[in-house]
Amino acid sequence: MAIERWDPFREAVSLRDAMSALLQESFIRPNGLLNQDGAAVGLPLDVSETEDEFVVKASVPGVKPEDVQITVKGDMLLIRGESRSEEQKQGEHWHLRERRSGSFQRSLSLGTAVDADKAEASYEHGVLTLRLPKAEESRPRQIKIGGPARDANGRG
Fold first, then answer.
1. CATH: 2.60.40.10, 3.40.50.10320, 2.60.40.790, 1.10.540.10. Which one for 45-84+102-135?
2. pTM value?
3. Terminus-to-terminus CA distance in the chain, angstroms?
4. How far apart are CA 75 and CA 93, in angstroms?
5. DSSP state letter for 138
6. Where are the beta strands (DSSP E) in the chain?
7. Which of 7, 73, 121, 142 has the maximum number of C-beta atoms within 10 A of its C-beta?
């Protein structure tokens, strides 16, 4: 084993490398938003819950309602769709083209089964709103306390 002289700067990160890493981790990447785990999110959602239902809001600006498919099975929600880009016209030259186009998809587990037959969807100003009532068997029930337990003959 060779003895090496200790150099305190060998393990130091250059300012350029540190700034590069900071900038890469601080901004939204071109392929989309990132969730808390650092995974790409193709469709940003807001999900709230009451005792009776889930309310899901999805940002889908520029997407026609007929280009969105919503599927619910048990407690799983799947939203998929496609946004189309404008056709380039003869004699038209783009200077900047940043609005995304193409297909998107997002699925999530709500943790509680929902009643898909009673679900409602609305679309206004680029926001898709889903109202997903919880399945009857998964709703909380209140149990009332009665008198003392009695047998089949009514004796306590």
1. 2.60.40.790
2. 0.61
3. 87
4. 47
5. G
6. 33-34, 40-41, 45-49, 53-59, 68-73, 76-83, 102-109, 120-124, 127-133
7. 121
